[in-house]
Amino acid sequence: MSPALPDGDVPPDDGGLPPSVVARSAGRAFGVYLHVPFCAVRCGYCDFNTYTATELGGGASLAAYAATALGEIALADRVLRDAGLPARPVSTVFVGGGTPTLLPVDDLVRLLGGVRDTWGLAPDAEVTTEANPDSVTPDALRRLAAAGFTRVSFGMQSAVPHVLAALDRTHDPRRVPDVVRWARDAGLRVSLDLIYGTPGESLDDWRRSLEAALATGVDHVSAYALVVEAGTRMAVQVRRGELTLPDEDDQAAKYELADDLLTAAGLHWYEVSNWARTPADASRHNLGYWRGDDWWGIGPGAHSHVGGVRWWNVKHPRAYADRLGAGRSPAAGREVVDETTAELEHVMLGVRIAQGLPIGELAPTARAAVAGLVADGLVDPRAALGLDGTRRVVLTRRGRLLADAVVRTLAA
Length: 412
Fold this sequence. Notes:
Blueprint: H1 21-25, E1 30-36, E2 38-39, E3 51-52, H2 65-82, E4 90-97, H3 105-119, E5 121-131, H4 138-147, E6 151-157, H5 161-166, H6 176-185, E7 189-196, H7 203-215, E8 220-225, H8 233-239, H9 248-264, E9 268-271, E10 274-276, H10 284-290, E11 294-298, E12 303-306, E13 309-313, H11 317-325, E14 331-336, H12 339-350, E15 357-358, H13 364-375, H14 381-385, E16 392-393, H15 397-401, H16 403-411
Parallel strand pairs: 1-4, 1-11, 2-3, 4-5, 5-6, 6-7, 7-8
Antiparallel strand pairs: 8-10, 9-10, 12-13, 13-14, 15-16
C-alpha cells in the first residue's frame, strides 16, 4: 500500500496555473520526471506507487502506458504555455518507478522523444533511467544510449543473498558487475543504489555490499537507510515480531562505514545519502530537487513543482488514464507554497548538500544559532567562518547523522 496523497486545494480540471508562476520561475532550471508504475514483483518494504505489470488493463496497462504518459506531456506543454511561461529546454529527465526498464525499449525511447519534441533538451541534458539488474540486456542499454539516455541507476540494494531475500529482491547479486560493465560499454554513466539497515543485516553484510559495489568501479553510489513505512508488508512483519529492525546506533555505524569506504575509494559525499567521484558524476536531476528548481512529474502519483506551485497526480494508473482520456488534468491536489514554507524548505534541503547553505540566507535568529551548531560538532567551522569563501552551513559527518536536528535548530 503506497502512502496517502497529501491534503491540498482542488486543482482546476484543465490544470491551469496562476499568473504568479511566471515571476517565481525566473532563473530556475526545468526538469521532467517520468514515473513508470510497474514492477515484476512488489517488494515487502516498498511504499512507492507501484503495481505488478499484470494487474492493470486499458490505458493503464503496460502496453498502453507510453501513449497515456505522452498525453500528459502534451497537457503539460499547453498548461505551461497558457500560464505565459517562456519556453525552457529540459535540463534533466529522470525515468523512475517502479521498474522503468520493464517497458519495452521502444516505449522508453518514445517517452524521451516526447519530452525532446515538446520542449527540447539542453545540449548537456542529463537523462537517467532506473533499472533492476535483471531487467536489462546489453542491446537494450546500447539502444537507450543511442536514443539520448546518458545515465542508468541500478537498484542493487545489497550483495548478500539473505538480505536481498528479506527485501523481496529477486535479482542475482552476481549479475551486478555484468550490468555495470554493459552500461559503461554503452557509454552510460552508472549509479548503484544500496539500502542499509535491513532486518538481519550485520555490519559485515553491509561491508560486503559496499565492497562489491566499489569493485564494479562505478562513479556514483546512493546509500539509504531502510525506512519501514506503515501499510507495507514488512511493517506488518515487524509489528508481529517476525522481523526486528536495527537500532539507531546500528544505522549510524553503517552510515559511517559507508562514508569511510566510499571516501577511501575516491567518491565524495555531495548530499547526505549520495557520493560521486566528480561533480560531473552527481545526479543533476536530484540536485534540482534539493535546490528548488522547477519540474513536471508525469505519471500516476507523480509530484510537480513549477514557480512555487506544487501538485500531485491521482495515484491509481486507471484513474490517471481515465482523466487524461477525458481531456482532464490528472492532478488530484495542489498547493501554492507560501514564503514561510519556502524558507523552511530552503533550509531543510540546502543543508543536506555538501555545497551547504549560505549563512547570509538564514533568518537572524538562525544565523545566531550557527555558532552553537559548530560547538556541537554538527557544522564545519571552516565553512561557517568563510575560510574557503562564502560563510556557509556545511554539515560535518556527525551533522549528517543528525541533519534533522540541525534543520530544527535553524528553523526555530
